[in-house]
Amino acid sequence: MTFALYIARDTPLHRIPPAAKLLALVVAGIGVFLIPDPLWLLPLLAAIAVLFVVAQVPLGATARQLKPVAFLLVIIFLAHGAFTSWTLGVLVVLRFLLLLMMALLVSFTTRVSDMIETIETVLRPLANIGLNPAKVSLALSLALRFIPILAEMTHEIREAQRARGLDRNIIAIAVPLLVRTLRLANTLTEAIEARGWDPDPPARIRR
Amino acid sequence: MAFPTRGQTRYVAGAMIELRDIHHRFGDRIILDSVDLTIVERRVAIIGSNGSGKSTLVRLLNGLLVPHRGTVRVDGMDTRGEAKAIRRKVGFVFQDPDAQIVMPLVDEDIAFGLKNLKLSKDEIARKVEDVLSRYGLEHLRYQATHTLSAGEKQLLALSSVLVMEPDYVVFDEPMTLLDLRNKKMMATVLATLPQVAIVVTHDLDMLSGFDRVLVMDSGRIVMDGPPATAIPHYVGMMS
């Protein structure tokens, strides 16, 4: 399980500034939901597929990301088919697929740190109303960094509890997980401090 | 870099950490009890049983903790009030690399401390490249940090600290979670560091090359000397 999807290549898509990519993603994401006809969405899907080729994203990497969602898309399709109309089902599934592909494309071609830096820049005006952009961006990085670690920890604890026949006991898993997470957070705080992090305004100056 | 020697002990010119009359407690528990210490040697180890105050002592050295009584000075600067400047001088490597790798990708994590130093983008990129090649991590540059092996993680954690070019590096049990091969790798890296290294450890084997060993017990330094005298003293205490 990973959120670091970035694939290092030197393609035109990799070189587009992250702000432009994120903005395009938002605009296109809204656009997809304004298009009423599935037939118009197909050329868009083809265009995105071309962009995947341009970005030199390996087919396997895309498939790995789409696989878990495919099941969900099938259910959505069937539900729409059964309760509304098959056309609507196609439309909704295509919209989701497009949205997903576009988001994936941005993730494959943009470094997480660049994305977070962009978000930090966008949030900077909000510093006036007490929101600290440096803190928000650190929180985002840490979330991306620690979700897989928490998943690993849960897995380890479940294994340990399985040895005692407690792997289905939610408390037997939640309590040690909580204790370990708090301990981890404690050291992490020290480590961040020790490496000179300083969120206080004047906000970080980039030269 | 050459190390001036005085007898057999090696020193780094001008470097000094001074602790004067340190008392520290957590609640009612006394953790450090009148500790006086001057560190000028290049390799200093701190050993002692669990709960003897080692980890607390080293956390005083870069201002992560400020003692309840007494002063800690690094090259003349007081950790009480000058913690920011001192953290640039004193790097800190923790036991568990998972708890100190902050960023999702390898090169981003190395860049984290440099961004905090507010260096320019070019300078950050140059220093990251430098340290990646120095420790043979180039091929892992874009890898997700949680997918690294334990040894690679500890090496990354160390690189992320060393890239900030501290004058002192504190290690809090750097070997505890490593296998034998990675322990050897860390020992080699440690042996070649030009900085002053202060190492908390339970690993007595690695101490032979050290200049000074402090033995702690119940918040006090009970023995202070070269490995040849301090280690047998500690072993005697534990048996």
Can you describe this structure in just a few lines?
Chain A has 207 residues and is mostly helical.
List the helices and strands and how they pair.
The complex is a heterodimer of chains A (207) and B (239).
Chain A: H1 12-15, H2 18-34, H3 38-54, H4 59-83, H5 86-109, H6 112-123, H7 133-162, H8 170-194
Chain B: E1 5-6, E2 9-10, E3 17-26, E4 29-39, E5 43-48, H1 54-60, E6 69-74, E7 77-78, H2 83-89, E8 90-93, H3 106-116, H4 121-134, H5 150-162, E9 168-172, H6 180-192, E10 196-200, E11 212-217, E12 220-225, H7 227-238
Parallel strand pairs in B: 5-10, 5-11, 8-9, 9-10
Antiparallel strand pairs in B: 1-2, 3-4, 3-6, 6-7, 11-12
Describe the structure.
Chain A is mainly α and 207 residues long. Chain A folds into two domains: 12-110, no CATH class; 134-194, no CATH class. Helices cover 74% and strands 0% of the residues of chain A. Chain A contains eight helices and no strands. In chain A, helix 6 crosses helix 7 (133-162). Chain A starts with 11 loop residues before the first helix and ends in a 13-residue tail after the last helix. Residues 203-207 of chain A have low confidence and may be disordered. Chain B contains seven helices and twelve strands. In chain B, helix 3 (106-116) crosses helix 4 (121-134), helix 3 packs parallel to helix 5 and helix 5 (150-162) packs parallel to helix 6 (180-192). In chain B, the strands form three sheets. Chain B has a six-stranded mixed beta sheet with strand order 8-9-10-5-11-12, with helices on both faces. A four-stranded antiparallel beta sheet of chain B has the order 4-3-6-7, with helices on one face. With 239 residues, chain B is an alpha/beta fold. Chain B has one domain: P-loop containing nucleotide triphosphate hydrolases (Rossmann fold, 3-Layer(aba) Sandwich). The mean pLDDT of chain B is 90. Chain B has helices spanning 54-60, 83-89, 106-116, 121-134, 150-162, 180-192, 227-238, and strands spanning 5-6, 9-10, 17-26, 29-39, 43-48, 69-74, 77-78, 90-93, 168-172, 196-200, 212-217, 220-225.
